[in-house]
Amino acid sequence: MNFKLEIAKRISEHLGNVPVSDILPGIEVPPNPEMGDFAFPCFKLSKTLKKSPAIIAEQLSASFANDALLEKAQPAGAYLNFFINKSLYAGEIIKEIIKNGVNYGADNSYSGKRYLVDYSSPNIAKPFHVGHIPTTVIGHALYNVFKFLGCDIISINHLGDWGTQFGKLIVAYKNWGNEADVKKGGVAELMRLYVKFHDEAENNPALNDEARGWLVKMEHGDEEALALWKWFNDISLDEYKNNTYKRLGIDFDYYTGESFYNDKMADVARELKEKNLLKESDGAMIVDLENWGMPPCLILRRDGGTLYPTRDISAALYRKKTFGFDKCLYITCMDQNLHFAQWFKVVELMGNTWAQDLIHIPLGLINFEEGKLSTRKGHVILLDDLLNDAVKKTRDIIEEKNPCLKNKDEIAEMVGMGAVVFSNLYNSRIKDVSFSWERALSFEGESGPYVQYTHARAASILKKASGLCATGAETGGNGESDAQETGSIEASVSPETGGNAAKDFNFSGVDFANLTDEYSREVLSILDAYPQKIKDCAEKFEPFILSRALIELCQAFNKFYNANIVLTEDAAVRNARLALVYCVKTVLEAGLGLLGIKAPDEM
Ligand code: ARG
What we know:
The protein is of the alpha/beta class. It is built from 21 helices and twelve strands.
């Protein structure tokens, strides 16, 4: 039930001649709970009704005297303050969550819309380093959220799989590598060769010319060059798919990288020429953007070779033709702002009104507060190394806090990933991420593990209530672990799922009047606001709106848990509290899932 809307409808009914649409936008949430759950300022009506706002508030309040929706409607000067019937409020929210499970908050706001999201897009043959984490995890979260809201969303990994770096790699391979080592070492060996090339080229600049020569060979279809290129690509992509992305739970609908457009760019150059947009400059071909306050967009190099913008323009035309998208989102670091602004403008100048549906979503950088992290090769921090470190550190924490846990490795993997992913989703995306191990791995602070831990705590309470298991995540607090036996609980246990599913409990007879204390109320109001947070997250392309909502929920839940014994003697109270615990667990699991993080039941 939308309480705000219900109130607006009733006000409109009581007044008789003012439409709901005039009332609804005026209804506010008062700054402090003593003033009620909602407030309606009566100033605006004063003119129409020819009465003072205070009189209107007074008279309206009388019409609400026997309304079951409310505890009371209290006039306060020009305002009418509404106090929602607390058990009705609790019941509405809880029933909704129990009905929908992890799909609570899903709706069809974006159904009928097709979005493309271009994200992650590392440069193959260069190390997959931590600089690509923000786009990878933010892109994935947005993909999930749009899908959840009914969008037909398609993910594309626009791999940097063409360019001079392959020339360099070929030179390095021919000079310092061999087939057996590359087969055995995979990406690590490719990276060794790549780094070696740079070290050697410092003293021998001729190597750079050689590398460029190999790129030209690739561009002219030289068999040997292309075979090596393809081999290096396959090795890298296989490893991303089967290792890095897999660990993060990510897959893409398309891995169409830059090379995919090799045979499509001649058309772009031709069209630009036909439309008189192409100009020569120093032998290169450009689109002049001076009128729009931007430097020219480079289309063709002096030797006729294509460039990054050429590929993006070609990709956009191809995508529009192939997918007919409503929007195409590009998620990259903000140092590419100019690049996107330039080529978006070129697409527009080509006469495509849909250029306005190309959206660049810029991100900040990732920095490391504690300075150096382990790296395999000194030059950059590799994503895989960071993930491995996270898991290792998590494993140590588990060993210390919960040495008897089963599946320690599996859970350390989930929590380690959660730590890294969450820390990239916790602030507005334009802000630089300052990564600190202490913060990322804290079980108490604003971190992934904290949300996962709170989820496990809720799962453990439910498990215990269903009588299956007596150990779990709760370690401190109110002595829940010693709580009395649960003989009289109205729980029927399904052995396969333990305490995980609402169907394990019979919540049908719950008396929601048992959830009107301030701690329950706080939890409920966050659960109530959660569906809107998901929508805001999509609307603003900001996953941090969701991650913060989860943190708030955890904080409120932990307060609730410390103040209220869930597995108490009183069966009615216990069932009501269990229903709330179930809802918190469900929403945490669902929210983490949207962010791309797993929610283990124990940790
Ligand atoms: N490969 C590029 C990089 O690492 C990102 C590509 C982003 N997508 C695009 N369509 N330009 O910087």
